[in-house]
Amino acid sequence: MNKRSLTHLTLIAVTFFFACTGPFKKELPKETEHPKLIKTIGSPDYGNVQCSLQDRAGNLWFGTTENGLYKYDGKSFSRYLDTDGLISNHIYCLLEDANGKIWIGTKAGLCLYDGNKFTKIEIPLPKDLPLNKNELYRNSRWIFSMMQTKNGNLWFATIDGVFIYDGKSFTRFVVSNTEGGFLNTNHNIERMLEDNAGNIWFGVRSNEGVYRYDGKTVTNLKLEELFQDGPKPKPHTWGWPQVQDKDGNIWFGNWGGAYRYDGKSFTSFTKKDGLYGGVTRIIEDKNGNLWFGGDANAGLSRYDGKSFTRFTTRHGLIHSSIWSIIEDKAGNIWIGTRETGLSRYDGKTFATYSEFKQ
Fold first, then answer.
1. Comparing 24-33, 132-141, 206-215, 248-257, which segment has the lowest mean pLDDT?
2. Spatial separation of the C-alpha atoms in residues 50 and 280, rounded to whole Å
3. Which residue, of 81, 145, 205, 220, has the greatest Cβ tally within 10 A?
4. Pairing mode, if any, of strands 226-228 and 234-236?
């Protein structure tokens, strides 16, 4: 058989094969089915997944500003509302203490979950506390942030000031403003952080700079102006303390970007450096990467110590305005966004873990 005849027979065989089997189709990978955080209260366009934590048992907790509290055990979501004992469906911060109890900071005050039931915790207010003149907050008992320090005390930054709980009673934290220009009323402190040396850092949007408490005095450290994106850039000189990284640097966020404090001086990071602000959350993952979440569609940014990589809805995020970030024990990054959105990033792709239903 000559070469030409062999080629002709091969073409006939191939044609016969596809006539019998049909055209070849590449199987596309199917998205893995997984449970979702279901939002049912309010409109699709409102609310945040505002805060998150992973407890010692491995459960993930997500607090929202309208739809209550969710717990994810890796298989399904459970939701808790005011009808289940929560004092409010508007949740702003979460904390697991050394005893494994979950503290829930809400717009209406403080709540404690012991694994079985929710209990309202009343923070007694001093009699000389001035009335809040803001109509929006006058009847509020807002809890902005919480932390447990190395000595076991719990700290609460509230709309009524900062309070310390030693396991028995609450004490109002007041430092004279003669030592460094500190707010003598302690109002409006929104974020707190204890560093490795035991200093307490405070962030206040209504004041300039950040505040450091060394156990005796409070020092106000000034910050350069960072400008918020927009048609009319607005300068900001305050900072929310967020995290101390593996090298000992302390990171702060504001509406214009972020600051890094190395113990001597501050370095700013803004859009020109590849970081889109404002910065609402900063965490450090197990590999030493820093993750920045930004509002106003700033998206999610990863910093490897040299450059920023930005992720938005174009990469699979459910929403580009971010209010909470947490890394789970498996190394997944969970991102809580506006419109009560929740995404998970496994290092390669984003998966959506939330849905709106009425």
1. 24-33
2. 10
3. 145
4. antiparallel
CA 174 to chain centre: 28
128 vs 345: CA distance, rounded Å: 48
> Does a cis peptide bond (omega within 30 degrees of 0) precede residue 278?
yes
Here the contacts of 50-53 (C-beta below 8 Å, separation 24 or greater) are 50/91, 50/92, 50/93, 50/323, 50/324, 50/336, 51/91, 51/92, 51/93, 51/94, 51/323, 51/324, 51/336, 52/94, 52/324, 52/325, 52/326, 52/334, 52/336, 53/94, 53/95, 53/96, 53/102, 53/326
Tokens representing 320 are: 């580009």
CA distance 224 to 82: 43
Tens digits of residue pLDDT in 225-278: 999 988 888 999 999 999 999 999 999 999 999 999 999 999 999 999 999 989
Of 316, 320, 358, 325, the residue nearest 339 (C-alpha): 320
Give per-residue pLDDT as tens, 173-196: 886 555 444 444 445 789 999 999
pLDDT band at 336; cut points 50, 70, 90: very high
The number of angstroms, rounded, from the C-alpha of 131 to the middle of its chain's C-alpha atoms is 30
Residue position matching structure tokens 């809400």: 106
Cite the beta strand spans of 27-88 per DSSP E.
37-39, 49-54, 60-64, 69-72, 77-80
Q: Are 207 and 183 in contact (CB under 8 A)?
A: yes
**pTM for the full model?**
0.89
Residue 146, amino acid: M
Place of tokens 């020092």: 219
Task: Tell me how far apart the alpha carbons of residues 79 and 59 are, in angstroms, rounded to a whole number.
Answer: 13
Token pair in block for residue 295: 């509002």
Q: What angle do CA 131, 142, 105 make, to 5 degrees?
A: 150
Is 216 within 8 Å of 205 (Cβ atoms)?
no
100 phi-psi bin (left φ>0, alpha ψ -120 to 50, beta other): left
